[in-house]
Amino acid sequence: MTTPSSKSDMLGGPRRKYVVGITGASGALYAKRVIAEILRAGHECHLCVSPYGQRLLFDELGIERLDGESLAAFAGIAHADDERSESSRSARTKSEITISDLRASGLHYYPSRDVGAAIGSGSFRHDGMVIVPCSSNTMNQIACGTGDTLVTRAAAVAMKERMKLIVAHREAPLTLIDIRAMETLTLSGAIVCPCNPGFYLLPTKVEQVIDFVAGRLLDLLGVEHGLKVRWAEHLASTNGEPRDEEHAA
């Protein structure tokens, strides 16, 4: 299984730690892309999935259980079969990958009910947390100070320790309760970033829409990436030519 340490060296910066929470709002592909890019950049990803988030992963991606094999596939972690000896490859199969094995690739997974896990403590220093997708239920719990799951506990800790917290809300329409929760979180220092894709880059594939949202979240986290989200780059690729009046409007 490949490790990101060499890539981190190539990027010329220290290996950073990011916390990712997944909850039960549609948008599993956003989380998948964000996690893959964090690891691709050579950083650590500390992952927690709520019970409804696990249901989401099953409904949208067919992930039946969060074991080593399924998490490796979900996070886009490649298996270094070409680096193993023939005897090693035959002795250990893909299905035998454990949660512990994933740590070598930078992915750390924590059970949702383990509120005593490292990421639930203020002594765990990280470079930012993103909840993607974030359900209204989870958002409102955090705004009310409820921390009875690891996702909400880690979010509460991020705010009290003045660490970056990004709430990628993905439900509509909004109730007044949701709006006030967004206000409370914003006043508490969190960044509410709804999963609203832009279309000014003229996407033609669903993957490009996913990349746009994931790229914006990665920007907020401070993770370097190559996803296409920059209007200036789009202008450069088209030689700065204006679009027709229909698109310009």
Which features characterize this protein?
6 strands, disordered N terminus, Rossmann fold, alpha/beta, 249 residues, six-stranded parallel β-sheet
Describe this structure in words.
By secondary structure, this protein is of the alpha/beta class. The chain has one domain (5-248): Rossmann fold (3-Layer(aba) Sandwich), CATH 3.40.50.1950. The protein has twelve helices and six strands. It has a six-stranded parallel beta sheet with strand order 3-2-1-4-5-6, with helices on both faces. β1, α2 and β2 (44-49) form a beta-alpha-beta unit. The chain is globular. Residues 1-10 and 80-90 have low confidence and may be disordered.
Q: Average pLDDT across residues?
A: 88
- Give the CATH H-level superfamily: Flavin prenyltransferase-like
Using the coordinates shown, work out and report the CATH topology: Rossmann fold
Number of domains: 1
Q: Poorly predicted ranges (pLDDT <50, ≥5 residues)?
A: 1-10, 80-90
Based on CA atoms alone, the radius of gyration comes out at: 19 Å
Helix content, binned percent = 40-55%
End-to-end C-alpha gap: 49 Å
Structural class: alpha/beta
At CATH's second level, what is the architecture?
3-Layer(aba) Sandwich
CATH class (first level) name: Alpha Beta
Task: Report the sheet with the most strands, covering strand number, pairing sense and barrel closure.
Answer: 6 strands, parallel
Q: Name the beta content range.
A: 5-15%
- DSSP strand tally: 6
Number of helices: 12
Shape: globular
